[in-house]
Every structure is written in structure tokens, then in C-alpha cells.
Design a protein that fits this description.
Layout lengths: L2 H13 L7 H27 L13 H4 L8 H17 L10 H8 L10 H11 L7 H16 L14 H11 L7 E3 L6 H11 L5 H8 L2 E5 L2 H13 L8 E3 L16 E6 L24 H12 E12 H5 L3 H12 E8 L13 E8 L5 E6 L21 H7 L20 E5 H6 L19 H41 L1
Length: about 500
């Protein structure tokens, strides 16, 4: 059976189970099963490579010892083992696991894992389908890596879980432009399912020549994810990409650590991220930031964190919404901080449907380097390809849609090499703005393409947003007129009263 057929069969089986409700739960169920299957495949490889290798978890929880036999435990016996033994004891593994740090990875992966399936016979059928995939076979593992990307993409239609997936074209373009080097520390502080980090590993693998290089690769990527499901998916993603001990993928909230307490161990060379936007953080998180920059808007807090955590000459590429660019108040102060401490050399403006169907909010990629203030900002507006009105789930953005931007970016023979920002020229999609003009506009970075006339949007969400803004402006004018008339009548009554006396 092909890998794609096996995964489709698994999803069909799960739909029959009364305990699994919706795509998000199916993905959650599949994720911890995949983790154990892939984890054990790597265990077998490590056992072959190393003398006296000792498994980091009790051997009875290794996939081969409870799941690999198609005639093994099933029904209520299987449910009893999974619910009351396997998951519970993996959550409670002693920590830290000094003998083998892979045990710590397993403990973290299962910190909030849950078995949604209520039918042990159906669960056995799912397990047997997974047994059709051989993760020790390099060809099958490679094919599954591509399919895993599709599984992650399915998150886009799994309710709010879509926020954890960044389209592959965007992650690949950013990593190609950033060109991380082996030995550099690369961080995604809101790593979701690990798209940026997986792409980074793929690029760094090409630079590995020795065993020392291989160890550098293992230590190169760092990520933090707040929610359990994407954290588990990210950890599994790293295993699939050859990171044997993804101990640097933490389950937690990046913003919970006060900025003032960051030390040398927290500093990194490269940050690549698409932090969550449009939401607010829990009460008290803003207290971890300087008083003049305190806000509960998640994207604004992450931008501050990224500026702070970069080493001198460190560089970053961050996806941010238009609201960050034109926002005022605290947002203005944060943008001033960015421009004073970093060289914001490029803003790539993305089409508004890149993240559909999760959101139609317009987004941008901000590329900056720490250590020197900004003098000029180059803008490049990526247009929709010809004949396309909007991207969607079946027709997503492709890496080829960035080719013109890569051609303009700078010198290099192909998209992976065009990283030297030389000989840039203005054209219909590109323009340059001086820091003086940005300061004069009160640090408004939402600067429209001067080469294109006003474009009328027909996007329903944008039209509704514009309508709501117009109604709010009209109501504001009404309130002002009401106040003026009220004051005028009040003064008239006062004057009449004085005259009658």
C-alpha cells in the first residue's frame, strides 16, 4: 500500500470512531501515534550504530513491543494499555533523563497527549495501517516527509489550528533569502508545526561535510511552541528531518520570560518566524516588557522579543500584519525601537490571500539586521500571478511566485543564492523610502506602492471592514455634532436665564 493510501485509510477509520470529533482531533490522535512510530524507527537505527545503546524509555513502550504485531492486543485491552499505562507513564517519565536526552523529548511530546479514540478495535486498525510505512527505509521516509507536509497543511481547515501552519512557499522563500550558515543558531520563537525550522535543516544539511558538522546541525535549530498539538507535530517534524534529539524544541510560552532576564544563552544569530497576530496575550504577560512598550497584542510583543534576542549583527525575517505597520500608540514606539536598533532593509508585501482560509488579513515579511540603525527601507510588493484572483487551499502560493522578487533582491544565480542586496532598482513592484520620510509620517511603515494607482478591493472581509470603519467614523461625527448642539443649547438656556433676571 502506498503511503498516501495508508494515511487516507487511517483518516477514514478514525471517522468511524465516536471519540474523534473533527480534523483537529484526528490530527492530534495521529500525531502521537506517528511520533512513537518514528521515534522507534530511529531507536532501531541508533541501536545498530552504537554499542551498548540503552533505550531512553521503558522498552515495553517502544512501538515494536506493543504495536508492531498486527495480531497484538486490541479492543478494550488495547484501550486500557494506551489510556492507563502508555500515555500516563510517558507523561511521568523521570526528568531530566541524563542517560539519554531522547527520553526528555518523549516526555515533552506526551506532556498533554490524549487518546481520543474510544473503540479499541478501530485503534488497532489505525496502528496496523501505520505499520505499512517503514521509517527505516530512506525512500519511504523521504516520501512520507512530503506527505507529512500535506498533513500539516490540513491544519488550515482544522478550525483555529490553521494559525500554526505557514505556507511552504513563504517559509522556503524566507530561508532562501536568509541563508543561515552551519554553526549559527536559528530560532523560531513561535514555531508552530516547525515549517521554518524544517526548511532550515534541509538547507543546512547541504553544508554538512564531517561528523563535527553533523553535530552542529543537530544543535542548530531552536523553537518554542505554546500549544501541545503543534509542539508535538513540530517535534515529529524534526525527527523526520534527521534531528535525533530535538531537545531545543520547547513546549512553553516564549513571552513568559521577562525581557530583562534574557542572558547570553538566550541570544541567537538568526530568527525566522510567523508569530500569531490578531490576538491578545493572557493577563500579566505584558509585565515582562518595559513599561513604555507594554501591550497585550501578541505580534507586538514578539517583535520586541525578537529585537532583544538577536546577537549583534544577527538577522531576522518576521511575518507581520498591516496593523503593525500603520498602528499608532505603543506600536509607534516599537517601530521606532526597531528602526533605531536594527537596519530594516526590506519589507516584502504579500498578497492578501496567502494565508486563506485561516485569515485574509494582509501580511508582510520584515527583513532586518541588528546593530545599525535604518537609513532606507526597500519595499517590494508581490503581486498575484496572472489570471489568479486569490490564493486558496487548492491553489496555494508557490515558490515560483517569489521569483521576480528574488531576481530584484540582489546578486546570485538562483533563488537560493540571491542574498547580496546590491544593484537594487525601483520598478513597478519596488520602491525605496528614506528614514526621514518614515519619521515625518510618525513611523508609519504602511507605505503604498507609488507606481500603482488605488486598487479597489472586492474581498468581502475587506469591504466589511471598510464599511465598519466608515460607520464608526460617521457615528463619531454624529457624536461630535450632538455635543456641539448640546453645548449650544445649554449656553442659550443659560443666557436666556440671565436675561430674564
Amino acid at each position: 500500500m502506498s503511503i498516501s493510501s495508508a494515511i487516507k485509510s487511517i483518516q477514514d477509520i478514525m471517522r468511524k470512531d465516536a471519540g474523534v470529533d473533527g480534523d483537529a482531533q484526528r490530527l492530534g490522535q495521529l500525531s502521537w501515534l506517528l511520533f512513537l512510530k518514528i521515534f522507534d524507527a530511529q531507536e532501531e537505527e541508533l541501536e545498530d550504530e552504537q554499542d551498548n545503546y540503552k533505550a531512553p524509555i521503558p522498552t515495553k513502550y517502544l512501538w515494536r513491543n506493543w504495536a508492531a504485531n498486527s495480531q497484538g492486543i486490541t479492543g478494550n485491552e488495547l484501550l486500557e494499555f494506551v489510556n492507563n499505562d502508555l500515555i500516563q507513564n510517558l507523561k511521568d517519565l523521570p526528568a531530566p533523563i541524563k542517560a539519554n536526552p531522547r527520553g526528555y523529548v518523549a516526555k515533552e511530546a506526551f506532556s498533554d497527549a490524549f487518546n481520543y479514540m474510544k473503540n479499541g478495535t478501530l485503534l488497532r486498525q489505525v496502528i496496523n495501517k501505520l505499520n505499512d510505512i517503514d521509517f527505516t527505509d530512506s525512500k519511504q521516509r523521504h516520501l512520507f516527509g512530503d506527505l507529512y507536509e500535506q498533513i500539516l497543511k490540513d491544519l488550515q481547515s482544522a478550525g483555529n489550528a490553521g494559525e500554526f501552519y505557514t505556507p511552504r512557499a513563504v517559509t522556503r522563500f524566507i530561508i532562501h533569502m536568509m541563508q543561515p550558515k552551519l554553526g549559527e543558531s536559528v530560532l523560531d520563537p513561535a514555531c508552530g508545526t516547525g515549517g521554518f525550522l524544517a526548511c532550515t535543516v534541509d538547507l543546512l544539511k547541504k553544508q554538512v561535510k564531517t561528523s563535527e558538522d553533523q553535530q552542529k546541525l543537530q544543535d542548530s535549530v531552536h523553537g518554542v511552541e505554546k500549544k501541545q498539538l503543534p509542539h508535538l507535530l513540530c517535534t515529529t517534524n524534526m525527527l523526520l528531518h534527521g534531528i535525533e534529539v530535538p531537545k531545543n524544541i520547547r513546549h512553553g510560552n516564549t513571552l513568559s520570560k521577562p525581557l530583562s532576564s534574557l542572558d547570553d544563552d538566550d541570544m541567537v544569530d538568526v530568527v525566522v518566524s510567523n508569530p500569531p497576530f490578531g490576538g491578545t496575550e493572557e493577563d500579566g504577560i505584558e509585565k515582562n516588557f518595559p513599561s513604555e512598550y507594554q501591550t497585550r497584542e501578541t505580534a507586538d510583543l514578539f517583535l520586541q522579543y525578537i529585537i532583544e534576542v538577536l546577537n549583534d549583527k544577527g538577522r531576522a525575517a518576521v511575518v507581520l500584519p498591516d496593523g503593525t505597520l500603520f498602528g499608532e500608540g505603543v506600536k509607534t514606539k516599537i517601530k521606532k525601537l526597531l528602526l533605531d536598533e536594527c537596519n530594516l532593509h526590506t519589507v516584502v508585501r504579500l498578497p492578501n490571500s496567502v494565508f486563506a482560509p485561516y485569515t485574509s488579513i494582509k501580511t508582510n515579511i520584515l527583513f532586518f539586521e541588528k546593530g545599525k540603525p535604518t537609513k532606507d527601507v526597500w519595499y517590494y510588493e508581490v503581486p498575484l500571478p496572472g489570471g489568479v484572483k486569490a490564493f486558496n487551499k487548492t491553489k496555494p502560493m508557490k515558490l515560483a511566485d517569489f521569483e521576480a522578487c528574488a531576481d530584484w533582491w540582489g546578486e546570485g544565480k538562483d533563488i537560493a543564492a540571491k542574498t547580496k542586496r546590491k544593484n537594487r532598482q525601483e520598478n513597478e513592484q519596488a520602491w525605496k523610502v528614506s528614514i526621514k520620510d518614515i519619521i515625518a509620517s510618525n513611523y508609519n511603515l504602511d507605505i503604498k506602492n507609488p507606481h500603482v494607482g488605488e486598487v479597489i478591493s472586492h474581498d468581502p472581509e475587506e469591504l466589511l471592514a471598510d464599511y465598519s470603519k466608515q460607520q464608526a467614523d460617521i457615528q463619531k461625527l454624529r457624536d461630535q455634532l450632538k455635543d456641539i448642539l448640546s453645548n449650544a443649547l445649554s449656553n442659550s438656556s443659560t443666557n436666556s436665564a440671565k436675561g430674564s433676571k
